Amino acid sequence: MSKDLYQILKVNSTASPSEIKRAYRALAREHHPDANPDNPEADERFKEIASAYEILSDPERRARYDQYGETGISSGHSDPFGDFSDIFSSFFGGQNSSPSGPRVEYGEDLEVDLEIGFEEAVFGTEREINIRTAVSCEPCGSTGATAGTTAIECARCNGLGQIQEMRRSILGQMLTQTICPECKGSGSRILDPCKDCNGEGRKVTEILLPIEIQQGVDQGNTLRLSGRGATGKRGAPAGDLYVHLRVSSHSVLERRGYDLIHRLHIPMSQAVLGADLDYETLDSKEVLAMQPGTQSGHIFKFRGKGVPHLNTRNRGDYIVEVVVDIPTDLTTDQEEILRKYASEREEEVSPKRKRVRSRRR
Ligand SMILES: [Zn+2]
Ligand SMILES: [Zn+2]
């Protein structure tokens, strides 16, 4: 089959995707073997049309064909559904967007829960997670066929993975497509299944998967790792892996979006008299210049020292909110000093209660 694919579909090489589709539909209807039971060549011609459409309907394959001709995609084979879908899998990641080709069944998506530390969520981390998944079967090279044998084209659908039927309706003849029940849409059959994987081309096992967690993630976030789920059957592309994150809480810090909040307790004397306090955020050293007369609720804000944003270079703020502690454990001497202080300021306070308590005992 060295005919020009555009000639086969009777379109010119600049035809739009919808023109190609229209041309294919018309030709497929005309040359469908069921519609031409007396013409032995119809079957060949129909396959030729389907093959041409298989390539020209896929933008990537069409571009490759335009650039390299058929050698660029088929290495001399005339069967587009056998070898060169494999070649394309390796070039383009296995996406099968063609509506008429064998069906590609992706591997299963997987879900895992992962608990990470507070600071790991803020700055990102690398982890290895243990998952039960399906991986390629090595003995058969994920083909599912015993080494040295190959799958054969499904006779029922001629490797198309789909069956086209001509139905008569009041609107005339209609071409309908269904998935081939014989090969379940794969287009091929394995006569000698690999013993290691029972012909699936993959095996279920536990693996340690390294994953990278980016900075700025938060409790309840789900990471979607494309193509890290279970490997598909017989070399089909893998599904996705969803990682649901739980973030452990911090002993003193609270997170609000990208801001970090620390309610810092200071003694009354520091609030009254002031103090310069050395202070460390998660990744910087600061000084809290506590002025004399600092009140509870006073806020120190360190801009850009909070949580890095997920996809930008920005960071939230780091906020220190002052809480003035009232002492509850005064010694007798300290109490005397405070009573003197109160009487000097003519502030009314409760009388000493210590003697009352000791008399009761
Ligand atoms: Zn089939
Ligand atoms: Zn195998």
How would you describe this structure to a colleague?
By secondary structure, the chain is α+β, with helices and mostly antiparallel strands. Helix 2 (17-31) packs antiparallel against helix 3. The chain contains ten helices and 15 strands. The protein folds into three domains: 1-101, Orthogonal Bundle (Helix Hairpins); 102-151 and 190-248, HSP40/DNAj peptide-binding domain (Sandwich); 253-328, Urease metallochaperone UreE, N-terminal domain (HSP40/DNAj peptide-binding domain, Sandwich). It has a four-stranded mixed sheet with strand order 10-11-15-14. The chain has a three-stranded mixed sheet with strand order 1-9-8. It has a two-stranded antiparallel ribbon with strand order 2-7. The protein binds zinc ion (2 copies). One zinc ion binds at residues 154, 156-157, 161, 180, 182-183, 187.
Largest sheet report: 4 strands, mixed
Counting H and I runs of at least 4 residues, what is the number of helices? Answer: 10
Number of strand elements: 15
CATH topology of the largest domain: HSP40/DNAj peptide-binding domain
Specify the overall morphology: elongated
